[in-house]
Design brief:
heterodimer, A: about 325 residues, 8-stranded mixed sheet, 4-stranded antiparallel sheet, globular, B: about 325 residues, Rossmann fold
């Protein structure tokens, strides 16, 4: 028998009803549109795409902060559903958000912030909780005396360590990292990434790592899923994707990464600037208006994901393999 | 003989009075920018890079104290110039782009209104001519249906479009110097690449000098002709981009470069380099090398006077152990 993946998404969808003007009718906005992904235990999935592509909505679905319109989330092969779906998800899946300045209450002590998830779930006695908080502060590299400080007395890096401690105090199996280092200084960013790598090793964590920084994703991820307008357009092992992207959108994203190499200059991705309106998505392949290789077929016919190497690609004319 | 630089700053100091004490936010910063050249000032938060750029435009908040040995723009002495003449320069020959276009555009006025405002202020011209130039520049920065955009409000545009509007606005009066403070930080990587390409193209065409302020070494490497690295209010290293990235001489510059994952150089999953410790307090007397408490090379001598060492005619490093400079 095969071990089920720790996290599996089947045709997950979230549609919002939005108005564009005060008196106009409500229209459906497909923020997440038929996403299927599967993450084995201990692996890191890098989820990338431009703002508005639905990656944060997907994170919210995984955290139980939004209810899916369709599809299901399976943890360890068991569908999460029923009245306690939200509580069940939050017991096993915890978040680390982008901005530690706004995701932590600045007036509460670190001790209270970190103990909060335990209190909510009614885990352990007050005395044991205090011990668990001190333990987890050690783990994330914060001094014990930090427990009595408030976030507004701390630096950005320290705050992000508090957010990580809060996520890990529940001993979750899966951590959703939504741009965890984007708001931090370069030197601090490296410290937090190193900490995340260490924690993954020590606790066998599974990460869903959402980022627009593909260099960081390449450093951490085992697998990469590229999202465009609510759909996954490419989902393959990280090494394959970075060695040779197959979807033109993935290639444009990769070319946009500015590595510190003065010889390369500013890349020209030949990607139109206009991100389409998600309420009125383009026909056929949603990427065709910006795609340098778009053909007639791409305008009318939406490509279904096809098996490709160690994963899947949704494109009629994927980029030829170079090697 | 080479032409005189467009902008030259020597020994710039910015103090922030805090109750009885003083925070020495920027200390002894000197640099030059020539026409048609891009200087990138790179540093982390609190390094004083944004204050430095505001000081050039004389836009520092009133309680901050700016001092310098010399500061001149195209032969004009910026230290003694009366505010009236300074505001003639600002937005005309010296223009600025800020990080967050949403907060620097006025939500209550149309794009067209805001684009033409400075042009009408600085030039003897008609509304019609100003409107025409605004449309021309919007098209130039890659905005389609420019006529229609002129009547729209900032909230009706996406972040990338707003930043393009900011660039068009800065170019209205054909400035000689464009100061861009983190112009692409709030944008997607794809849009970032497009905006940087646009700045490079416009520079080539119009010959403007650009000072680009950023924390992103990737951006710096790809766009800079010359680089100035700031740390805790001081310029620790400066020089032409290619040799600086090839052989960074200051331990801070080296440390910063080791902090970022670089495909092909760093191995996935391996720990990245990091700079332990925190930036020192800049209140009261600041002495010696400011980086010494975080520096792997620091020695006794680093708490004393640290001179700026020159290598060749372009590279400057503020370190006793500057090494490997080619």
């Amino acid at each position: 028998m095969t071990v089920p993946p720790i996290l599996e998404l089947k045709d997950l969808a979230k549609t919002y009803q939005v108005r564009q003007g005060m008196f106009s009718p409500k229209l459906p906005l497909k923020a997440v549109d038929g996403v299927s992904l599967s993450i084995p235990r201990g692996e890191t999935l890098g989820l990338v795409g431009e703002s508005g592509c639905g990656k944060s909505t997907l994170a919210k679905l995984l955290l139980g902060l939004e209810k899916p319109t369709a599809g299901e989330i399976l943890v360890d092969g068991v569908a999460v559903s029923g009245a306690s779906w939200r509580k069940e998800l939050s017991r096993r899946i915890q978040p680390i958000f982008q901005d530690p300045y706004s995701s932590l209450n600045p007036r509460k002590t670190v001790r209270r912030i970190v103990a909060m998830p335990l209190e909510v779930h009614g885990i352990a006695t007050a005395h044991e909780r205090a011990r668990m908080v001190e333990e987890i502060l050690d783990v994330v590299g914060l001094p014990r005396r930090a427990a009595d400080s408030t976030p507004n007395q701390m630096s950005g890096g320290q705050r992000q360590r508090v957010a990580i401690a809060r996520a890990l105090v529940m001993r979750p199996e899966i951590v959703i990292c939504d741009e965890p280092t984007s708001a931090l200084d370069v030197s601090v960013q490296a410290q937090i990434l190193n900490l995340l790598l260490e924690l993954r090793r020590d606790f066998g964590l599974t990460y869903v790592f959402i980022s627009h920084n593909l260099a960081v994703v390449e450093h951490l991820a085992d697998r990469v899923a590229v999202m465009y307008l609510g759909r996954i357009v490419e989902d393959r092992p990280a090494a394959e994707v970075f060695a040779g992207p197959r979807h033109p959108y993935t290639r444009a994203l990769l070319e946009s990464v500015l590595t510190p190499d003065p010889a390369l200059g500013v890349p020209d991705t030949r990607l139109g600037a206009v991100f389409p309106n998600p309420i009125d998505p383009p026909s056929g392949c949603a990427f065709h208006p910006r795609c340098p290789h778009a053909a007639e077929r791409c305008r009318g016919d939406a490509p279904a994901p096809k098996a490709d190497g160690g994963g899947r690609v949704a494109c009629h004319y994927p980029i030829e393999r170079t090697a | 003989m080479t032409a005189a630089p467009l902008l030259s700053v020597s020994d710039l100091t910015i103090d922030i009075p805090l109750g009885g004490r003083t925070l020495h936010a920027v200390r002894g910063v000197s640099f030059e920018v020539s026409r048609g050249e891009t200087l990138c000032i790179v540093g982390e938060s609190g390094s004083g890079k944004s204050l430095t750029s505001l000081a050039l435009m004389n836009l520092l908040p009133g309680r901050l104290k700016r001092a310098a040995a010399a500061m001149s723009f195209d032969g004009i002495d910026l230290l003694s110039i009366p505010e009236r003449r300074m505001s003639d320069l600002r937005g005309d020959r010296m223009a600025m782009i800020f990080q967050e276009p949403m907060t620097s555009l006025n939500p209550a006025y149309t794009i067209g209104n805001q684009l033409t405002e400075a042009f009408l202020r600085h030039r003897k011209t008609t509304r019609k001519e100003a409107f025409g130039r605004a449309v021309y520049l919007l098209e130039k920065v890659g905005i389609t249906a420019a006529d229609r955009r002129m009547k729209q409000y900032p909230h009706q545009l996406s972040g990338g479009l707003r930043q393009r509007v900011m660039i068009a606005m800065a170019l209205m009066c054909e400035p000689d110097l464009l100061i861009a403070d983190e112009p692409t930080t709030a944008l997607d990587v794809t849009i970032q690449a497009q905006i940087l390409l646009l700045l490079k193209d416009l520079q080539k065409e119009l010959g403007i000098a650009i000072i680009l302020i950023t924390h992103d070494l990737g951006v710096v490497a790809r766009i800079a002709d010359r680089v100035a690295v700031m740390y805790a209010g001081e310029l620790v290293e400066s020089g032409p981009a290619a040799p600086l990235f090839q052989s960074p001489a200051h331990p801070y510059t080296r440390g910063l470069l080791e902090c970022i994952p670089q495909p092909g150089k760093t191995r996935p999953g391996e720990p990245l380099g990091s700079i332990p410790g925190l930036v020192p307090s800049l209140t009261g007397r600041v002495s010696g090398c400011v980086f010494r408490n975080r520096c792997p090379r620091a020695e006794e001598a680093c708490s004393g006077e640290v001179p700026v060492v020159a290598f060749g005619d372009a590279r400057r490093v503020r370190c006793l152990f500057a090494e490997g400079v080619r």
